[in-house]
Sequence to fold (916 residues):
Amino acid sequence: MAERFEIVQKALQKMLEDKKYATLRDILVTMNPSDIAALFSNLEEKQIPLMFRLLPKEQAAETFVEMEPDAQELLILGFSDNELKAVLDELYVDDAADLVEEMPANVVKRILKQADPEMRNTINQILCYPENSAGSIMTTEYVSLRPHMTVGEAILRIRRQGVDKETIYTCYVTEGRKLIGLITVKDLLLAEDDETPVTDIMLTNLISVTTHTDQEEVARMFSKYNFLALPVVDKENRMVGIVTFDDAMDVMEDEATEDMEIMSGMLPSEKTYLKSSVFELFKNRIPWLMLLMVSATFTGLIITAFEDALAAQVALTAFIPMLMGTGGNSGSQSSVTVIRSLSLGELKFRDIGIVLWKEIRTAVLCGISLAVVCFAKIWLVDHLLMQNQEITLMVDAVVCLALAVTVIIAKVVGGLLPLAAKAMKLDPAVMASPFISTIVDALSLLVYFLFAKALLGV
Amino acid sequence: MAERFEIVQKALQKMLEDKKYATLRDILVTMNPSDIAALFSNLEEKQIPLMFRLLPKEQAAETFVEMEPDAQELLILGFSDNELKAVLDELYVDDAADLVEEMPANVVKRILKQADPEMRNTINQILCYPENSAGSIMTTEYVSLRPHMTVGEAILRIRRQGVDKETIYTCYVTEGRKLIGLITVKDLLLAEDDETPVTDIMLTNLISVTTHTDQEEVARMFSKYNFLALPVVDKENRMVGIVTFDDAMDVMEDEATEDMEIMSGMLPSEKTYLKSSVFELFKNRIPWLMLLMVSATFTGLIITAFEDALAAQVALTAFIPMLMGTGGNSGSQSSVTVIRSLSLGELKFRDIGIVLWKEIRTAVLCGISLAVVCFAKIWLVDHLLMQNQEITLMVDAVVCLALAVTVIIAKVVGGLLPLAAKAMKLDPAVMASPFISTIVDALSLLVYFLFAKALLGV
Fold:
């Protein structure tokens, strides 16, 4: 499919170069705005406005929304005031607000000047809600119905107003701006009698969020309840907007990406990989690398402290990477599982006892299995096969005991730290692999050397 | 909110115990099926059928779908044949198919016996599609329109058939079972004239998937195009079903969880954390731990090979954990970024050149910055502050040179391996942190010892 798209893309670009505008336009009008937007990202700068002006008004606006910020900026800078106004008039308010957030100050000024007063007001209002709140992703364009309406009147209102609304499929019944019920177009269409009052068939058991609800929580509610849209109310239960499922999907995707980035020791990025400059990648990656490198000083100090033991039993050094690696992997398995359960809303801090008990038992099973296999492997491979006489039964025992204990510590630490982070209102994802590895590295070395001292007397 | 829910839950459970069934029923009918299902998971076994029988027929079916498999199984085993049939008749076909997949063989037999022949047929058909394909998550209950219909006739058909369909908002125009267009209820309602033929306003530029399209690809299309539903066709472009946005959301969530699990060296789990037994957690976690532990033999061998060098310069040992840790973190940053871009569809294998060039430049920036800071830290802290005379300027230089080279190797390996996996049709997520750490561990030790040999002459 991707290949087919490229062929189409090349053909269309050729038409643009050959100035076959009429044919090009005929093809463009049949395409999906997302695909047209993708076309733009491969055009030369001067071709962008040329192609954009071929699109019919409504399609142009829909395509504009899907375009990359740099292409949008380029277009706005080239627009006449009238062209800009025409595009803005076609945008849904939440898309316009997104646009304003992305653009540099001079462009924003032009946009707000051309937007009609009502839209300007709404944009400003949306921009004032905290980042990542329901208010910041909602749209104010929904269909509202009055309690005195009948089914027939409601359908009529939808037919009159619907064209400007982001969704018409869920309508909200409000009384003095207070949200009192919701009704779907399905219920309206399937109602047996057009004279039925909407209050008879509306749902009153409402699930709503407030403007300050975190967007992650909003996305979770969508995946739990399978809603098409979710009403957003203010503190007085007055209806202020709706969040639609497509915005919730974007949030889900972004939050999962962010969790993965944080879990692997990066700052969350605003841009996708291909759009990020090398310097931006560097800026996101270096802080944790630096911090973790410096904090590895502790492991260094522990090794230095036990230098004599290592000198007496050189064979011990060879198992350090295996011990730390297995400890790190064990810990990150537990932490990633717990972090994911926390962000899907399955786990809460109060479940700490359950997690602890589950992790301890799993860790004991893993620790013993690994130790048994490791013991056999060291004896068969390192001692018998490689003929390493320094590896005595006692050395083997020290390594495997340390391994079992390390795995147990790692899994318990890995399971509990994300919960602790949650309790301290930190992002649990920060407690993933790199951070836990550093802690587990230090602990596993300590355990190792203490066993060596006790059993080998070094 | 979670707390409020618990209070409600306790109150309802009390009513059940006190046999206040009428009041309980009055409250239940106002509640959302997802929330009622959550109630059930805290009831005692014998209370489950009791509470379930209080629900009106349709709500009972909707609640049933949202329940955990063990509660479903318990209910089915307790149902009379008539009760089972009543619930099955209310289920959407894709939910029934999901149910059949979850239940043990004896329960499946009862379900298929009670389902009406048409549903049984469809269930069997859906079950035959490969796991994780569009066919396996689609429903066959959609509204299909004929090309000769007018807007008015189409609306009439929706009003007649809609009650049994999973979504009525997107309708499909088919001719001899071939999909020729789609039309939304919004377009139908906003059409100016009821006499307009649907072929005049239907969209013919169709985006569809086939029954064998991977569900991850399906979810990607939803998040790209913001569809409510996506038509599924067979090889001859004959319409066989639709996937709805709620199923796509579940897929997105599951795929992200699966990626995170695989990336941290676990087998993907079918159940959530709290539902998994200790033995299931163990089974998912031990294979990679075992494999990675055994493969750490290589790092052990490298250390053994350079034992003399370490004995001559004991200070070198202290920096091994820092080197391996920083290398591992650098590599997993790159691999996780590339894996996520691959699963969001931003990157393709052919972008390998772009990734390589981006990672090399980022790696050089990171490597140099880390080396400079590390050099200063070792000199100031380890040499001057801790008075460790073994750490000469030359030892410091060896560590930092090795660090810079390790970071560069790690980032390049981390960036390229997931792409290589993709090209070999493997899951790129397998190439994340643990796997890459093991490779990078071995490489970083080699680099370290080679620098030590060359510069310190050990």
Remarks:
- The domain at 2-128 of chain B is CATH 1.25.60.10 (MgtE N-terminal fold).
- Chain B touches chain A through 116 residues (CB under 8 Å).
- The first helix of chain B runs from residue 2 to 17.
- The CA atoms of residues 224 and 344 of chain B lie 10 Å apart.
